[in-house]
Amino acid sequence: MDVNEFTKQSGTVNMETNRTEMFKEFDATELYCPRCKRAVPVRKRLLLILQEGDKYEYLCTFCSESVGTKMDRHEKPISIII
Ligand SMILES: [Zn+2]
Predict the structure, then answer these.
(1) 73 with 53: CB under 8 angstroms?
(2) 47 CA distance to ligand 1 centroid (A)?
């Protein structure tokens, strides 16, 4: 493999990967914050773990105001072993 070509390519890939991970952390979401009066990047926080799924809360990254919630439902089938 051409070393120079490899370095050039891996540099680009790393940059893309970092950007993707950043979006993953913020759940790729911008929500309207009533306190900041604009769309803001949000932080996802686990609020409740329920039988049917996990409930997350979205917090404004600037003022930590709660700007929304989301339910991540578990798709696991219920099986009872006797
Ligand atoms: Zn805010």
Answers:
(1) yes
(2) 19
CA of 69 to the centre of ligand 1 (A): 15
Q: Let me know if residue 82 belongs to a domain.
A: no
pTM over 0.85: no
Would you tell me how many other CB atoms lie within 10 Å of the CB of residue 44? 16
User: Ligand 1 mean position to 51 CA, how many Å?
Assistant: 31
What's the number of domains the chain is made of? 1
CA-to-CA dists, residue 82 to 52, 75, 79, angstroms: 22, 22, 10
Render pLDDT for 29-79 as a digit per residue (tens, 0 to 9).
789 999 999 999 999 999 999 988 999 999 999 999 999 998 888 776 667
User: What's the 50 CA to ligand 1 centre distance in angstroms?
Assistant: 28
